[in-house]
Every structure is written in structure tokens, then in C-alpha cells.
From TrEMBL:
The active site is at D9, D11. It holds the Pfam family Put_Phosphatase. InterPro entries: HAD-like_sf, HAD_hydro_PyrdxlP_Pase-like, HAD_sf, Pase_PHOSPHO-typ. The lineage of its organism: Eukaryota, Viridiplantae, Streptophyta, Embryophyta, Tracheophyta. Coiled coil: none annotated. Substrate binds at D20, D95. It comes from Nicotiana tabacum (Common tobacco). This is Inorganic pyrophosphatase 1. The gene is LOC107817132.
Length: 268
């Protein structure tokens, strides 16, 4: 259904953990990470960690191998494939980074299901080390949102997507997430949209404490089976509603005046 856009967070919404912590822990750098974390923003810590891991002899191949072992939430990959097959426009909005996300999505065979990935830039520099940069360069200016971390406001990304959808004729959005950073975009959704927060995770708590601020219809999920069932049910319900509206429009289609039969004079 061309009118439905599904936006996924990545960490703990597609994979079942935080990708930054997973890479750091699996490559044996947890202690250094914990030392650096109080000294700078998370995004900056990860860039520093990539430099340190490179200095220790860790390669891009080592990082890729770790990423490919990241546990996935059960039933999420089939759900994504089915949503794509049903014609939905799938996108990622994540505070991880492009390199991690693309590596994992390619490994899972679902990279082509997504039309857009919005995340922190991650690239390999000329020395062969992974660099991780902020989505929003907070060193030069602030994005101005007090709800979000300095490097990324997901709400601003959702607003940009909404503006582009208005020109493409797409109307309904489904947003899935788990973290505190997913609260701001949830507030940007409209009453005809849907938000799927992961139950008992930070965004679930924030939404439940501020339900009057959320205009979208709320559907929580606790595991992959519930995630798959709810997502596909919402998509099918929207599709059915739009098909019914189309049927009504066709039934009451206006006939141009020139197409009406000409009046025949009635003899007296």
C-alpha cells in the first residue's frame, strides 16, 4: 500500500540490543568505554572508541564479524519482508550509525526493503579505521530540542519525512521504537498515524506518562510475535479502510453534465 510509511528504530527494535555496546563488549573494550563515557557525548565516545580499537589492531572485518552475530528480535525479519511485500515504504531512523545498520541489514538480506536510512554517518577513513560522526553537528549549532541527545533529534527527521510525504501523496505513518529518543518523534505523529512502543522500555514509560501529548494511536508490543502481528494487522486495516473509501468514491463518482442524455421535449 503506497500510502503507508513504516519507520523503524534500529537498536532494540530490529536487533535485540544496543549495537554500540555490543561492538565494544565483543571486542573487549568495555572498561575503556566506561572510562570515556562520563567525559563526552555518547556519539563522540564511539568515534574515540573506533580510533582506540584500530590502534589495538582491530580491523573493519573484525567489526563486521561482530555485527553479523548481533541477535535479532524473533519474527522481525519476516515482518519487515511482509510489510515490504504489501507495498509499504520502509525507513530507518536510528541513533546508531550507517555502517552498523547497513552491515546488519545486508547480512539479514533486508537492505533492499528500506528506501531510506537516517542515522549518524559511519565511514571508513583513509587509514582503514571506522569513523562515527554526529547526524547533527552539535559543535557548530544546536538542533534546539531538549528531549533529544545533542547529535540527533528524531522528531526533526520525522517532520522532514512528513513534509516530503505531503508532496508524494502518502498519508499514514507507523513508528516503532523503544528508547527515550523515540518519544520526540512519537509526539510529531498525527491522529491518523500509529506508534508502536516496546513495552517496559523507556519510550513506553514516557508515552504512558504523557498520553495526552500523543495524537497517534498507541499499540505496545512485548516480543517479536506481538510486534509482527500488530504491525501487519495495522497495515491490513489501513489497506482495507482505503479500499473501502476508494469503492465509495467510485460508486458516487460525478458524471459530467455533457455526458448526461439530452432532454427530449414532451408533447402536450
Amino acid at each position: 500500500m503506497a500510502g503507508i510509511v513504516v519507520v523503524f528504530d534500529f537498536d532494540k527494535t530490529i536487533i535485540d540490543l544496543d549495537s554500540d555496546n555490543w561492538v565494544v563488549d565483543e571486542l573487549g573494550a568495555t572498561d575503556l568505554f566506561n572510562q570515556l563515557l562520563p567525559t563526552m557525548p555518547w556519539n563522540s565516545v564511539m568515534d574515540k572508541m573506533m580510533k582506540e580499537l584500530h590502534a589495538q589492531g582491530k580491523t573493519i572485518a573484525d567489526i563486521e564479524e561482530v555485527l553479523k552475530r548481533a541477535p535479532i528480535i524473533p519474527r522481525v525479519v519476516p515482518a519487515i519482508k511482509e510489510a515490504h511485500a504489501l507495498g509499504c515504504d520502509l525507513r530507518v531512523v536510528s541513533d546508531a550509525n550507517i555502517f552498523y545498520i547497513e552491515t546488519i541489514l545486508k547480512h539479514l538480506g533486508i537492505m533492499d526493503c528500506f528506501s531510506e536510512i537516517n542515522s549518524n554517518p559511519g565511514y571508513i577513513d583513509e587509514e582503514g579505521k571506522l569513523r562515527i560522526q554526529p547526524y547533527h553537528d552539535f559543535h557548530t549549532s544546536s538542533h534546539g530540542c531538549s528531549l533529544c541527545p545533542p547529535n540527533m533529534c528524531k522528531g526533526l527527521i520525522i517532520e522532514r519525512i512528513q513534509a516530503s510525504l505531503a508532496t508524494e501523496g502518502k498519508k499514514r505513518m507507523i513508528y516503532l521504537g523503544d528508547g527515550a529518543g523515540d518519544f520526540c518523534p512519537s509526539l510529531k505523529l498525527k491522529k491518523e498515524d500509529f506508534v508502536m512502543p516496546r513495552k517496559d522500555f523507556p519510550v513506553w514509560k514516557l508515552i504512558n506518562e504523557n498520553r495526552e501529548l500523543v495524537k497517534a494511536e498507541i499499540h505496545g508490543w512485548k516480543d517479536g510475535e506481538e510486534y509482527e502481528h500488530i504491525l501487519l494487522q495495522i497495515i491490513k486495516t489501513i489497506t482495507m479502510e482505503e479500499n473501502q473509501l476508494l469503492s465509495v468514491d467510485c460508486k458516487f463518482q460525478t458524471i459530467p453534465i455533457e455526458a448526461l442524455p439530452k432532454a427530449v421535449p414532451v408533447p402536450y
